[in-house]
Write a structure and sequence with these properties.
single chain, 483 residues, alpha+beta, Thrombin, subunit H, Pdz3 Domain, N-terminal domain of MutM-like DNA repair proteins, 8-stranded antiparallel β-sheet, 6-stranded antiparallel barrel, flat
């Protein structure tokens, strides 16, 4: 018995040691490290241009081609690649990225980098587990850990808002979401995008393959979305009122999208019964042949991209009809409060010490990781509002740099601008134009949206330019405006 216990302990120690060893499965020849240096938005001093360096993973998928997630790449200033988990870094460049799908391709012109590397295969199908392996570089060693399949779901991307299919896995690991590989039987099942506790989000390989195929064919028009809103058709009384008999089913449209033509888009009080031939149940889901029950939002991108036509079967009053709905492209610029702003440095305008910026989600994220809890509610509110009054964007007074011209207004901040000198303001360019002509009485009159404690603010027009120059010099700003 003692001998048996001794052998048992030795065996268990051996298993524990084996689990702690670096993985030796061939993935070290496909998985690479990526270092991205990117510009960081300073919400309260937008004239600053700080940078941040992060490390993530990528996987070789073809000759001279590394696949990774797009996170941190849209504002990059430098990208480098490393193989083997340690050693030399090679300068790289981004050949393509897309925010909505959260995918990017990298390459490097250094031949030495590609020596010894081999492409990995993206799985053509992704099963429901039950278990997968997660592969990552950690402290220079290749680490392989088992993770559990959770579910397929539909949601917005990490840096995009177009809904698409995603996978969730459970892992007893921390610090995930940096494009680690999820693999099984020698094939890549997906790339991690984020983690929340034990749950880790993953871009499935099937989704990745379809986007990459369209990109390489030159037919990728971007991801789309259903721009109308709806609620599950689970209330039989509501469905009866709308003229639908039988068991509860479908999604009840409660707000139309940008297209108001009833022959081309769903309208309020329509009941959406089927999309692309898939019946919609009372939860607003359809039965996907590959992933099971998923929310109908996925059908905008399941077999389509932006600009494609999707057939919607709906109940409108006493009759059923089928309409050809053109899937709109998901663009940040179409949102009243854009979730991302890429392609240019942060913009601002300083007038007499008043600091104005566009109201964007990057600005709201200046309140930290839990910005949804801490950012001012009156600013967050506009994320859920539509463009109105011919105003498709907003400008906010984000702070005041104290100067003699703005005495008494030092505490004014975080209020949305409505008009300046009688002119409606939607952009910083509108603001700059409005400041060219003063209001009667020789003042610049700033009016703010209803609901703020401060409704109007006056600055002397005759001394505004001089005061702005004084503020720029005193506070060491690079310029009074950048837009």
């Amino acid at each position: 018995m003692k001998l048996f216990r001794l052998l048992f302990r030795v065996a268990m120690l051996g298993l524990a040691s084996a689990a702690a060893l670096p993985a030796q499965s061939g993935w070290e020849h496909s998985l690479v490290s990526i270092e991205v240096t990117s510009k960081v938005y300073d919400a309260f001093q937008p004239w600053n241009d700080p940078t941040r360096a992060v490390r993530k993973h990528g996987v070789v998928i073809g000759p001279g081609e590394v696949l990774t997630t797009a996170q941190y790449l849209p504002t990059h200033t430098l990208v480098r690649l490393q193989k083997g988990g340690r050693g030399r870094w090679y300068d790289a460049r981004v050949t393509w990225w897309d925010a909505q799908s959260n995918l990017a391709l990298l390459t490097t012109e250094a031949p030495a980098f590609w020596d010894g590397l081999q492409p990995a295969a993206l799985a053509e199908t992704v099963s429901r587990g039950p278990d997968f392996e997660l592969i990552r570089w950690r402290d220079g060693n290749l680490e392989e850990r088992r993770v559990e399949f959770g579910q397929f779901t539909v949601g917005e991307g990490v840096i995009g808002f177009a809904p698409h299919v995603q996978m969730e896995v459970a892992a007893d690991l921390s610090g995930l979401g940096w494009a680690e590989l999820i693999v099984r039987e020698g094939r890549v099942l997906g790339l991690t995008t984020h983690s929340n506790g034990r749950v880790c989000g993953v871009l499935p390989a099937t989704f990745i393959r379809r986007v990459l195929a369209a990109h390489r064919a030159g037919t990728f028009t971007g991801l789309g979305y259903f721009d109308f809103t709806w609620q599950p058709g689970g209330n039989p009384e509501l469905l009866k009122e709308l003229g639908l008999d039988g068991p509860p089913r479908g999604g009840v449209v409660n707000r139309a999208g940008h297209v108001t033509d009833p022959d081309k888009a769903p309208q309020p009080r329509d009941i959406l019964l089927a999309v692309d031939g898939f019946d919609i149940d009372s939860e607003g889901d359809y039965l996907d042949p590959d992933f099971g029950h998923l929310m109908l939002e996925n059908l905008a991108n399941r077999a389509h991209f932006a600009g494609d036509t999707v057939k919607l079967r709906l109940r409108r009053g006493p009759e059923e009809r089928t309409i050809d709905y053109v899937v709109p492209v998901a663009r940040f610029a179409d949102e009243l409060v854009p979730r991302e702003v890429f392609g240019a440095p942060p913009v601002y305008l300083v007038a007499g010490g008043l600091v104005f910026q566009p109201l964007t989600q990057p600005f709201l994220r200046g309140w930290g990781d839990e910005w949804r809890k801490h950012a001012p509610f009156r600013l967050q509110y506009y994320q859920y509002a539509d463009a109105h009054d011919r105003r498709d964007s907003l400008v906010v007074l984000t702070g005041v740099l104290p100067d003699e011209i703005n005495l008494g207004y030092e505490d004014a901040d975080l209020i949305v601008l409505d008009r300046v000198n009688g002119r409606m303001i939607a952009t910083l360019a509108d603001l700059a134009e409005a400041l060219k002509t003063a209001s009667p009485g020789g003042v610049h009159r700033f009016e703010f949206m209803p609901g703020h404690n401060l409704q109007r603010l006056l600055l002397d027009a005759a001394t505004l330019d001089e005061a702005t120059r004084r503020v720029v010099e005193h506070y060491g700003l690079p310029a009074a405006a950048r837009f």
